[in-house]
Structure prediction request, 143 residues.
Amino acid sequence: MTIAARDQMREGSPPPSPLLVLGIETSCDETAASVVEGGRIVHSSIVSSQIDLHARFGGVVPEIASRAHIEQILPVIRAALDEAGVTPQQIDGLKRRDELVYRVARARDIPVMVTFAGGYAQNVEDTVTIHCNTVVAAKEVFL
Prediction:
C-alpha cells in the first residue's frame, strides 16, 4: 500500500481505485502499447512487429526501425485504447503527469496558457483529446 493510500484511509476516505495506465514500449524491432489496471489486469496489448522490414538485411537497421516506430506509435496507441474501451482522459498516468506539470507551473508562476499551449500530437483531433485531459488536471491544481 502506498503512503498516499494509507493517508487516505486514515482520513476515512475509501482506498483509491487501481490506476489505469497506458504502457508504451519501443524495442529495436517492435512498437507496443497496453492498457493495464492496477498493475495486474491487462485490458489490451497491441504489438506492431518490424521483422519483415529488417529480414532482408539479416538484422535490425536502426534508421528503418526509428522511422517505423514514428509511423506506428499513434496507430498502436489508438488500437490499445480502443481494445481496452477507454479514452485518453481515463488514463490515470496521463492525468497525473499533467497535474505535476501544472503544479510546477504554478510554483514557478508560469502562465497556465503557456503550459496548456504545448502541443502533444501532430493532428488536431489528438491534440484536442489530450488537451481536454489537461484542463481537468489544471482545474484540480489551480482551483
